[in-house]
Design a protein that fits this description.
alpha/beta, 5 helices, five-stranded parallel beta sheet, Rossmann fold, 40% helix, 139 residues
Length: 139
Amino acid sequence: MSTPRLQGKNVLIVDDDEDILSSIDLVMRAEGANTRTATDGNAALAAFDEGGLDAVVLDMMLPKRSGFVVLERLKKLGNPPVVVMITANMGKRHMAYAQDLGVDAYLVKPVPLQRLVDTVIRLLFGTDGEHDDATEKKS
């Protein structure tokens, strides 16, 4: 059995859809990640204040505070975690705005879970996952 690829990494998953949240949580844990979850923007900001995050999977459309507000605050931190924004919104204007705010990857739902995991791994470790065709900001 291979070593989980996210062993010891702390990942926050933020989505207001409980089914999506639990599915992402399950695959991240299967890869060895320590996960925290939040269902709205305010809860996400509270989780950031706890610190220790390596990566954040962030839905764009959230109750209380949008994913954009959360992303903007997160990227102002001294050593921000990598952020993968997921959204059902295919508008190029939203993607451009997320990139302006410093998002590390922007994926359109429905996102295959393996692709999401591979994207997080590549961003954290600089290694390619099996699927490397995500719409992402190039640094």
